[in-house]
Amino acid sequence: MAESGHTVWTRKDLIGIQDLSREEIELVLDTAPQFVAVFRRESGIKKVPLLQGRLVVNWFYEPSTRTRTSFELAAKRLSADTLSMTASSSSAVKGETLHDTLANIEAMHTDVIVIRHSSAGAPHILAARHASHIINAGDGRHEHPTQALLDAFTMREHIRKRRGDPCAGLDGVKVAIIGDIEHSRVARSNIWALNKLGAQVTLCGPSTLMPVHVERMGVRMTTSLREAIHDADVIYALRIQLERQAKGLFPSLREYIRLFRIDNESLRHAPPHALIMHPGPINRDLELATEVADGPRSVILEQVSNGVAIRMAVMHLLVNSGRPA
Amino acid sequence: MSLAIVNGRVIDPASGFSEPMDLLVKDGVIAKMGGKVKGTQTIDAQGCVVCPGLVDIHVHFREPGFESKETIASGSRAAARGGFTTVVTMANTRPVIDNAGMVEFIIRRARETACIKVRPAACATKGMEGAEITEMAELKEVGAVAVTDDGRDIASSAVMRRVLQYADMAGLTPMTHNEDETLAEGGAMNEGFTSTVLGIPGIPKAAEEIRIDRNVRLAEMTGTRLHVQHVTSAEGVDIVRRAKARGVRVTCETAPHYWMLTDDAVREFDTNAKMNPPLREQADVNAIIAGIKDGTIDCIATDHAPHTPTEKNVEFDLAPFGIIGLETALGLVITGLVEPGHITLERAIALMTAAPSAICNLGAGALREGGPADICIFDPAAAWTVRAEDFASLSRNSPFIGATLKGKVRYTLCDGRIVYHD
Predict the structure, then answer these.
(1) A283-305 pLDDT, tens digit each
(2) Which of A21, A223, B224, B255 has its CA 20 to 30 A from that of A36?
(3) B26 in any annotated domain
(4) pLDDT in tens, A28-48
(5) What is the crossing angle of helices A145-163 and A66-77, to 10°?
(6) 3-state secondary structure B211-257
(7) For B313, phi and psi rounded to 5 degrees?
(8) pLDDT value at position A97?
(9) Minimal C-alpha gap between B196 and chain A (Å)
């Protein structure tokens, strides 16, 4: 059964982590390992028929390679048919509403719609009005739930390994998220997920890229990188968008690097066991120095691998909730 | 033909009258107030309040240019359904109302198509571009009652100073939309914890307060009149309160949604909770109510801003700003201000009749023998549910659809004609 303890998945959609209970998050995390095992099959047949005959549409309004590929692969490994739609402009610009566009896609009998959109709330308003299972693959600055789930999964795997406890959770784990918090849906979803799982989150970045009252989400805030990472179990660097500098939100890349880059120098102030994570794609040597990105503490590529398993788990739970895996 | 309105309670804030009284309407005017009246027709106003037709000095009727949102005809029907008999239309149509010909156009269309009195505001600057002031003396001559670039900020303090001085000479009320657009740029809701959680770019309160403060200081410097539109924040109210204490000739308005709702209404990404200025927070709602109670806020206006369902049925950040308000205003005033005991019914009616009329010198909002029979008859105790299909407006963009309100308009009379009947 798709359950963890007594939790049964009942949601039609995955829109955000904010709505989920700790039990629901743990259910997704506990569903993922069986799919990790699928990739490692000795038979070489890295596929299960759980979504056979289903249609999964990847509908991306923003450029994305990693997330789109990850969802596509997840769907294929569940034996679903997949369709990719990329849109260079929003439907409003073309004169068609978002609802109309989805109604047209749904007329082709879709089961799962994976949507990425530059507008916060786009998946939310669609989920309320359409029958397909909607998965939010990132909406504006709002949420990126599958990223937070794969991040929590990756952290949990490492904590379990380090502690030699196969049941360990994230309670008490200290996570420092570094960079442009204001524009980051990854940060928001991670804050919700980590808080619900009992971790302690510290945010660190330029004061101009810190959203107002973010501390009310239950996090610590600092503008000192050293303070943020000195006791961190996980150091999570966010991608710094180059256009933010052009808009005057920080003075120069040079100064950003001086204050916030994760490199061997700044890592001298972090515990030696601290993991390095990043949602990708990395601006090499900007927010993350090459020696760290490629170094022994980096689990960035594991995040990518786990991403496929987590997305398989999510699609499986949404479509087959309650049915045996 | 004559119409007797009997058994009602007449409330006329202009004269301070609030007693049971019968009225006789004949030839478009109030022929008789008090005593025994008899007409060829009778309205039994038992249990109802009979008051001056309501006045709204801030509406967008979208004509010319955006007739699928609203027209002067449909907007006037919405006004009548809300108990209003006089409205002041904003000038941000297409083309904008920045010359005498355009003012005359609005007046002609109102005469031809409106069931109530539509009085145009004109632009404060040519093309609403915030650079050159309009020909205000001529605008006044042909019938404009106010000047405003509502919807846009006048960025230049020098231009704003000239607007205030020149409007004063022309005898027009200058009304200001207060928004530092550089600070508000890209924002779609109030900047605060809710915008942080939702990831929607915010509009800080300071964007509004900076401009209220600047405009108040310019009015103080020039010694001229100023009307501040749609005040929404605690500090905005306080800037006006302090200015009044210094003797600045400033008045201000707020709209019902600013005391009924907070930015929490955005949580479901409902585009009917998107307007400019945006919904604020609970402390601001409390301050708006306090400002209404202590008289800092001079009148209630709706900022009736229609947009079609198609235009609003989009992603939150892409939706246009604005909600309709004429048909729910009285219910929201009674439900949100009178029922909880913040103000009396008499005071509420004053804020929607005599007070706004005085701000734009409209000569409306009062009941007197020989005066125009612009009358609103409403049942203050009647509860009703707001339903989208009942709106007389062409648009449906109200966050109050589904809400149950107290206070239902039964009849609206304009120049003695029944222009709305429940």
Answers:
(1) 999 999 999 999 999 999 999 99
(2) A21
(3) no
(4) 999 999 999 998 888 889 899
(5) 80
(6) HHHHHHHHHHHHCCCEEECCCCCHHHHHHHHHHHHCCCCEEEEECCH
(7) -85, 55
(8) 85
(9) 6
Whole-angstrom distance, CA of residue B22 vs CA of residue B25: 10
Residue B176 inside a domain? The answer is yes
Q: Rounded to 10 degrees, what is the CA torsion of A285, A288, A291, A293?
A: -120
**Which residues are bridge partners to B195 per DSSP?**
none
B interface mutation test: which of A213, A214, A221, A249 has the most B CBs within 10 A? A213
Average pLDDT over residues B106-125: 98
Are B250 and B198 contacting, i.e. CB atoms less than 8 angstroms apart?
no
Within 10 angstroms of residue A291's Cβ, the number of other Cβ atoms is 13
Pair of tokens at residue B65:
């240019």
Per the residue annotation, which of B98, B303, B379, B415 is the catalytic one?
B303
- Into how many domains does chain B fold? 1
Domains and CATH numbers, chain A: 3-143+304-320 (3.40.50.1370), 145-300 (3.40.50.1370)
Interface contact flag, A120 B316, Cβ < 8 Å: yes
For residue A201, give the amino acid letter.
Answer: V
Nearest to A214 by CA among A242, A196, A197, A192: A192
Whole-prediction pTM: 0.95
Side-chain-side CA neighbours of residue B407 (13 Å): 21
In a domain, B408, yes or no: no
Residue B28 lies in a domain: no
Measured in degrees and rounded to the nearest 5, phi and psi for residue B154 equal -95, 105
Looking at residue A139, the DSSP 8-state letter turns out to be E
Residue A126 in this model has a pLDDT that exceeds 70: yes
In this model, does residue A2 exceed pLDDT 50?
Answer: no
Contact state of B316 with A119 under an 8 Å Cβ cutoff = yes
Residue B119: CATH number of its domain: 3.20.20.140
Locate B133 and state its tokens: 């002031």
- R_g of chain B, CA atoms, integer Å: 20
Average model confidence (pLDDT) for chain B? 98
User: Per DSSP, what are the bridge partners of residue B25?
Assistant: B3, B30
- Residue range of the domain that includes B313: 52-366
